[in-house]
Amino acid sequence: MPTLIDYRRRIRSVKSTQQITRAMKFVAAAKLRRAQEGVFAARPYAHEIVRVLRSAAARMETTVHPLLDRRPEEKILIVVLTGDRSLCGAFNANVLRRASTFARENSSKQIEGIAIGKKGRDTLRKRGWKLTAEYLGVSSKVEYSTAKEIADKIAELYANKDVDAVYAVYNEFKNVLVQRLRIVKLLPIDPAVLGSQAEEIVAEAAAPEGESLPHDLAPSGQGRLVDYIYEEPVDEIFGHLVPRYLESEVFRILLESAAAEHAARMTAMDSATRNASELIDRLTLEMNKARQATITKELIEIVSGAASATS
Amino acid sequence: MATDAIELQIVTPERHVLQENVQSVEVPGKEGYLGVLPGHAPLITELGIGILSYRKDSETRYLAVINGYAEVLPHRVIVLAEAAERAEEIDVERTRRARERAQSELSKAAPGFEEWQRADLSLQRAQVRLQAAAKAGAAGAGEYAHGA
Q1: 20 to 30 Å CA-CA from A210: which of A111, A309, B11, B93?
Q2: CA-to-CA distance for B61 and B23, rounded, in angstroms?
Q3: B41 touches chain A (CB under 8 A)
Q4: pLDDT-wise least confident of A21-25, A273-277, B16-20
Q5: Which residues of B touch A232 (CB under 8 A)?
Q6: Is B82 exposed, middle or buried (CB count within 10 Å of its CB: 0-12, 13-18, 19+)?
Q7: Backbone phi, psi, residue A111, to 5°
Q8: Assigned domain for A305 exists
Q9: How much is the ipTM here?
C-alpha cells in the first residue's frame, strides 16, 4: 500500500503538470485570438482581389493564364497543413489521416506532397511520401511573405507542368470547439472564381458567422461591371493578378489552419487541466483514507498496549 | 459625404491600413505617379514601389506602398498593396539597417541573379520607406530624403 509520502509526491507531480497544461491553454487562447484577428483582417484584401480579378476577366475575350490551364490530372501535388508541435488533440492526426486517404483514392496518379508544419513533415516522411518542399514554423506566426513563398513554389511547379493539379488538406476553423477538415483545389484555379459564382464565394468569405466586415468594402454598384480605364494592358494586369489571388488563397488557408490549431490546442489543454483536477481530488481522497487508516492503527496499538500493561 | 471628397481605402493582406475621406490622392503607379481628384474616371492600375500621398484638410500625408493595385472610382480609391505603412509608423532605425544590409548584399551578388534581384528589391523597399518617413519629417530621416 502506498504511504502518505507517496501520495503527496503524486499529487505534487500532477499539480505541476496541471500548471503546465493551464499555462499552455492560456497561451493557446491568446494565440487563437491573434490568429482569428488575422483571418478577419485578411478578408477585405481577398475580397477586393477577387473583385478586381473578375472585372479584368470580364473585359478580356479569352482568359488565358498558365495557372488556369486545365490538364488531365496525372501528377498531383498535395499540400498538407499541420502544426509544428503536438499537444493539440487529434488536430495533426486528423489532417494526416485525411491526406493519406486522399492519396489512396488517387493512387493511380503520381503523388507529391508539400508539408507545412513539422508534425506533417515527420509523419509523411515516415510514410514514404515524396516531399517536394517543406515549410516549418509557419503556424506560430502566419506572415504574408510565407504565403507568397509557398504560392510561388506551387505556381512554379504547376506552370512547369511538374504537376497537373494542386490540392490542400487542412483544418478549417469553424469555431473554438469545432475544426472541419477540408480539401480544396488550389490549382488550376476554378474558372468560377472569375465568373458569377465568385460573388457567392466572396459573400461567404465576408460573413461566415453572421459577422459583418469591420470596414465596409462592399463596392458601390455591385452587380454591374464598371467600365474601367486600364493603365496597363488588361491582360497584363490580369496576368499579374492571378498569382496574387493564389497568394491570398494560400494565406487564407494558412491562417485558417493556424487558428484551428490554436483552438484545438486550447480545447485539448483545457480538458487536460480538468482531468488533472479530477486526479488530484481522487488522490487527495485516497491520501486522507490512508492517513485515517494509520491513525486508527496507532490508536489500536496504544489501547492494546495500555490494556496489556494494566492486566 | 461631400461631393468633393474621395473615400480612400488601403488594404493589405495583413491589415486594413486606412480608411479616410480625402481631397486628393497620388498613387505610385507602375508607369509613374498618378494624381486622383474627385470625379476621376474609373481606372485600374498596377502599383510599383513608391510613396502614396493624400491631402486631407490641407495637410499632406504619406505612406510607403509596396506593389499592388489601385482601383479608382469617381469618389472612391481602393488600394490593394502587398505592404503599406504610414510614414509615422516607419521605424527609421530598422529600415536604415535593412538598407545597409541590402546594399552590402547587392555589392556581393552578381547582377541579374536571384540574390541580386532580391537584394535590389529590399533596397528599393527600404529606400521608399525612408523617403516616406523623411517626407513626414520623422527625426533622423532627413539625410535619406534624396535617395533613389
Answers
A1: B11
A2: 12
A3: yes
A4: B16-20
A5: 30-31, 45-46
A6: buried
A7: -120, 135
A8: no
A9: 0.76
